[in-house]
Amino acid sequence: MAQMQDGWSLQKDASGIKVYTKEAGDSGYKPFKATVLLDNTVEEFASVMYDVDGLLDWGYKIKTAWLFERSGDSLQIYYAEAKAPFPYKNRDGIYKNVFQWNSKTKTLLVKINLLENYKVVDPDLVAIKGHGYWSATQLNSGKLEVTFMMEVNPGGEIPAWMANMVVDDSPYYTLLNLREAINKPKYKNKKYSFIK
Question: Where in this chain does the record put each START domain (predicted)?
Fold first, then answer.
């Protein structure tokens, strides 16, 4: 398998999407990173990220999602439930997204942290733990380079070896669906004060 910097190995290269994984750390679960070039703007990408309800259209196996809190354009906290394969229980989590714009590199960074200390929404579900980021860089060519990285512990009884077998599915289908969703009219012609 092709190697990338910092120990990332290419696992999948299809439909213009590249998915990399890294050796598992103490948790036993492999982190992933996926990249794609889009014919869109960073403002359109930001619009998709802010639309929590829209996550149902493009997030991999997302069953429900809703916004808990938003602070200006820089912070949002939302809940999401993801479907798990039978016989396992669905997974859920509270996601904290922090938005940072770098005007020099023309990059929007969205830091993701799953909050562990929160009121249980559904005791029948299993809370996941993890962190990661989205980055979207507006290239001189007009293309948008998007990267999605996560390190997740799905919790419960799903063994690490089983999760690691399909670790490339989530980022691949997420980016595949995002590429279609970002072109919806509702994400066009949006402006954000911090993106300059």
Answer: 4-167
